[in-house]
């Protein structure tokens, strides 16, 4: 299990609501949160997945992510 952080464009409650089912249903993601109070909208994920897989999952949901 590893904790990774990403710069994202998940920037409001509506975006979080849209991302929630995608992230919650992805096997391998144990826990996640987004800090929308910082300009880079930091997504922190505890997961067995590698960064590229997480970026692909977010892309499928319509969001951009860049590993920090």
Can you characterise this structure?
With 68 residues, the chain is an alpha+beta fold. The protein has helices spanning 13-25, 51-60; strands at residues 2-8, 29-35, 42-47, 65-67. A 4-stranded antiparallel beta sheet has the order 2-3-1-4, covered by helices on one side. Strand 2 (29-35) and strand 3 (42-47) form a beta hairpin. The two termini are 17 Å apart.
Integer count of domains: 1
Overall spatial form: globular
Low-confidence stretches: none
The main pleated sheet reads as: 4 strands, antiparallel
Portion of residues within helices: 25-40%
At the first level of CATH, the class is: Alpha Beta
Strand content: 25-35%
- Give the overall average pLDDT: 94
Strand order of the largest sheet: 2-3-1-4
The fold-level CATH name is Alpha-Beta Plaits
| Count of extended strands | 4
Query: Which class of secondary structure composition applies to the elements?
Result: alpha+beta
Key attributes of the depicted protein:
Alpha-Beta Plaits; four-stranded antiparallel beta sheet
Helix and strand topology:
Blueprint (H helix, E strand, L loop, with lengths): L1 E7 L4 H13 L3 E7 L6 E6 L3 H10 L4 E3 L1
